[in-house]
Task: inverse folding
């Protein structure tokens, strides 16, 4: 495999450090064609669907994409905003706020960017741009608190696959998970308490995590255990008894058995058993998206009310809450230990010279054109 051409090396250049906040991804628009492109990339990942490739390719192209694309596009239209896809908007804002807070804490030599595993901005393209920008240390921070081979493992596949084509590979650090990190758990606790202060407290707190096939648990994936640990630690912080909350899994796909109990049937059963109000939180998502706003906030709400439930409350994701950005900074700082993250006076001067050279080069190119 030929290597990509390296940018021109500058002796004595100040190496830079970057944090890449990586989320799942989103279609470019809530249209059938855009959703089809996104789903094709997402569902073609062998980490996501562990079915023999030839068989799955037939199923995907003959049955899944032709029928699911339109239905998914209709769901995206329900939650799309003027700024665009909520998932992308929240990830962009989180990256910007994390950059600002790290600078306030003295890490002015660290750059924070966001990337998507599927869709745009594509992770390989972001890594290419960081190389062009002189970044030689990269910490990869997934937007998944709980590790799964289907999510975080897929990010590592994309990163290592990309760097197989790179001659001069930067120094890398990989944040595997933060499901039991105090900064993450404290932010979750604060978000629940703030919601209860404003809206009262429900009869049952449902902690709904994204589902994965049950076979992944049986084959050694730690995701199920990490979800339950997050729920247990959050319940302890909230002072909840075991009967006060339930852990469920959502977003089931296909006919295979997934992690149980499933969210929608559980919520409906609670309603039939006489539970008047449920509060639902999705701790596995750090930003609101299709799975929280449409699936939980609309579909699961309908299931609860159709079964006789009277009061359904969805507690928003962490999004840009100050407590969460502070927690995210703590997680990042722990994985930056040992790297110089404060820009020296010489580094600042080099940055100024580089910027000036860039401006002069742009002027020359403009004049030549």
Result:
């Amino acid at each position: 495999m030929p290597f990509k051409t390296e940018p021109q090396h500058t002796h004595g250049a100040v190496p830079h450090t970057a944090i890449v906040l990586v989320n799942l991804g989103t279609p470019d628009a809530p249209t059938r064609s855009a959703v089809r492109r996104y789903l094709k990339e997402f569902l073609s990942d062998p980490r996501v669907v562990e079915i023999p490739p030839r068989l799955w390719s037939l199923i995907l192209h003959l049955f899944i994409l032709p029928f699911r694309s339109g239905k998914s596009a209709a769901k995206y239209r329900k939650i799309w905003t003027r700024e665009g896809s909520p998932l992308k908007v929240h990830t962009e804002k989180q990256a910007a706020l994390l950059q600002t807070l790290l600078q306030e804490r003295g890490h002015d030599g660290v750059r924070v960017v966001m990337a998507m595993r599927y869709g745009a901005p594509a992770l390989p393209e972001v890594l290419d741009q960081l190389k062009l920008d002189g970044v030689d240390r990269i910490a990869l921070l997934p937007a998944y608190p709980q590790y799964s081979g289907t999510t975080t493992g897929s990010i590592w596949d994309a990163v290592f696959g990309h760097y197989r084509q790179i001659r001069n590979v930067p120094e890398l650090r990989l944040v595997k998970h933060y499901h039991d990190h105090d900064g993450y758990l404290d932010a979750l606790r604060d978000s629940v308490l703030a919601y209860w202060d404003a809206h009262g407290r429900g009869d049952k707190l449902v902690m709904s995590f994204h589902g994965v096939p049950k076979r992944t648990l049986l084959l050694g994936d730690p995701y199920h255990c990490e979800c339950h640990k997050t729920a247990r630690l959050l319940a302890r912080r909230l002072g909840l008894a075991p009967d006060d909350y339930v852990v469920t899994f959502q977003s089931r796909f296909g006919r295979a058995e997934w992690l149980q109990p499933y969210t929608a049937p559980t919520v409906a059963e609670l309603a039939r058993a006489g539970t008047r109000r449920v509060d639902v939180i999705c701790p596995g998502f750090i930003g609101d998206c299709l799975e929280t706003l449409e699936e939980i906030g609309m579909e699961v709400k309908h299931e609860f009310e159709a079964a006789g439930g009277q009061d359904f409350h969805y507690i928003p994701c962490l999004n840009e809450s100050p407590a969460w950005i502070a927690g995210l900074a703590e997680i990042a700082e722990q994985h930056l230990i040992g790297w110089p993250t404060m820009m020296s006076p010489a580094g600042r001067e080099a940055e100024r010279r580089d910027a000036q050279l860039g401006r002069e080069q742009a002027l020359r190119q403009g004049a030549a054109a």
